[in-house]
């Protein structure tokens, strides 16, 4: 990336052209915050050697800035000449250590000090310094001063020379003290000296003392912007954003900003700085543990909550009044669901902590866990109006809670604390914050040179009412390469016209009016008796909590048998995306692998398989052909050519369903390039009906899809999930630094391709209704997985899309039932708690498993993600609202180091409890930096325990397939041999497809149901089934899409545990919302259930 000079901007008037100013003293330097400790000398190192004491840092920019910072120690001393022989006339090195003192007092100690320093005679210099200090002490005594040590009689420049002498004679603490006294005596007017003193203090590990020193300097010299910038950067490095914000705002208003500062000003999500240098501050100064806050934040961001809490406990034990650490400790305790500890923590807090959003997030999460919605809402509203308020997590929490109180007001007839206007403003702000962070991330990943994206960031900030930041970003945009597609000057001109000295940092018009909420809702009363309604809360563990992160490392031993029988059964296929996937140099378009699905195309009751291939160059038809395998009594026969389904596009995934309501399942094949629609003729062949659906762009990169009725007209519609736009991912490579080997580019380098919604016309043709249905968003995702069904328990189908590195999407009907065949969709994933992780941060999401994981009667999601994230379990807490319960259920640590793709919820032993099955594998096989990438990775299966938590299953006894690592991609279900045990298929990058047959010897009772719609679409997608037994209720959901590039067996499977072989009652709620009861349905069998005609 090319280097740019820092940009400094003139006062606001008519939109000015930015002026380039090369000034290392003004430049943004958060990397100084994170790395300067590593570059500072050890105690006693020679002063003049500091400028050459260089360590390796991560980027050239940081390295240059660090050298600038470190050299300040030497160069700002007043211009001393540190050459070895300066003024050393005898040329004798030994003279530098000669003791000049005798019985005669020095006539001119200051002159002697200067001369000794020039001659590098350090001991003589220190002796002269002592004479000067003794004289100052004598002056203090004679004046009658009561001050312990008064150095005001010594000139600042002389104090700096004394500091140098102290340093060179191994007295760094005194050196820092003398520098600080020099600054105080001249009222901090010398900005270079102030920064020099700060570096000296950092060298001693006095990080927080240095922050207070800089605060003192700014109180005396508020216009000293260079010092303020340093203080801002050091607060950011320390993870004290509340303190940093006031200085950052002042700098923006003073027009002293650059890209680095603006990015840091709005980085409310993950810590991006290395915490090791801050840890070294504690090593140098063990009496101050506060720098450990940086490491605690890094652990928190990795969802290692227990480790974060341990570090924070260490800090607050020594510094109980350090509010940033205390507030973050509260948030960490709440995130780990250690609520009894949280209650004790809250009782010990003092005034001042209320300025930190983390404090209110902790109380809000506590209240929410205890079913105290009003108190939770009040707490999150407080968080949204204090300190560092525009945190996505806060606004998404508000968005999920607020609608519940509109309903309550309607029922009770009381004056509402929450209004529809308030809900609308909060929802808009949550969504706009999400868009802003995604734009900023894309700007960074594309090299920080896009004028168009910088303008979009400014526009997003303007919509958030953050006009000063918006103007600053638009000023930055004017310095970036020209782009004729955008008019930055016009936007700036309009924005500048709206600004005046009285304009607040956040204009109130863009914020909700919480006055009614404050007046009617209570603050959390954390002394309240804790509810026992949460089964996880009741489970035992340290301090009453079981919220540790890790599943058992060795795994639970189970009596299961799962064997790969692909070869034995004739399912021999390898749908790889390239022939060289075992070598470095994999391109982004080759990383996703290929999927497939289960289809009973001949309706003989035996599950056939359709497998997708690639290997060519998109969008050409030069890949290996897809294959259809017919299941003949448990053995497979390849019939792709005969069935006319052997597409040669660059295959990614497939959706299975009946598109024309004739009872025969059809195929929607998703490609990088033209997609294919194959209609089942009912005679063992298919016809290519691709021309009956609207063609996408020639370079459309589709990954997954679904066939399901969306607009409630009884006809199956299509959803095409798309990834990146254009063919650039095919041609653009990303070489590794210092190497000719290319790596897989980040998808964020390329624009997102919007998904498409295709409406059935009823005659076998489809029309693109994406815009007509309102399925358009300002933040298109890079989609990989999809689920369609009745996801919220209300009649009608919703669409959930897992996006890679951008927030997920959830599309639902805007205003109840569609009228006259018109459907209006609204995207609300963030507002429903499934836009990302618990804090709303987007993840590298791919696969989706669904089911009633906690047996409470509603649908939950399990979403797979990239490494250094974690696979996320979203538990539905109320209709259409989900919570990230991953940490509380023990599912974080085992998935954190792996790259997970396909996943399904499978009851392997028919116990009635769903296991989570995950296939893992990295996107490439080379190392990044010092970290070796593990390309082949283990499969994972998680079993739910009686306490509600999940534990990893030991793979040692499952079967030979599980003894090896794989580069897994797609995963879907089937019952290949019709034995009532769920089997599954797994595709890979570097080996053929696996057909995993479930041969578990001891299994429970079971039931399979094949639903057929009549009034509803024949696929009956969106149906909910409940089976009443003597052992409880089993709930299942018929969904389409099925996650990552795949289609599951459409026959619903229910494990019934120890239930005796007896008939059961089945209730089906069809997509129409009408329920039917079917008594005496036999178990250990497959039954077809047909919707009654209406």
Automatic annotation (TrEMBL):
<dbReference type="InterPro" id="IPR027039">
    <property type="entry name" value="Crtac1"/>
</dbReference>
<dbReference type="InterPro" id="IPR028994">
    <property type="entry name" value="Integrin_alpha_N"/>
</dbReference>
<dbReference type="Pfam" id="PF07593">
    <property type="entry name" value="UnbV_ASPIC"/>
</dbReference>
<feature type="domain" description="ASPIC/UnbV">
    <location>
        <begin position="1020"/>
        <end position="1084"/>
    </location>
</feature>
<dbReference type="InterPro" id="IPR011519">
    <property type="entry name" value="UnbV_ASPIC"/>
</dbReference>
<dbReference type="InterPro" id="IPR011990">
    <property type="entry name" value="TPR-like_helical_dom_sf"/>
</dbReference>
<feature type="compositionally biased region" description="Polar residues">
    <location>
        <begin position="85"/>
        <end position="95"/>
    </location>
</feature>
<dbReference type="InterPro" id="IPR013517">
    <property type="entry name" value="FG-GAP"/>
</dbReference>
<dbReference type="Pfam" id="PF13517">
    <property type="entry name" value="FG-GAP_3"/>
</dbReference>
<protein>
    <submittedName>
        <fullName>ASPIC and UnbV</fullName>
    </submittedName>
</protein>
<keyword id="KW-0732">Signal</keyword>
<feature type="region of interest" description="Disordered">
    <location>
        <begin position="84"/>
        <end position="109"/>
    </location>
</feature>
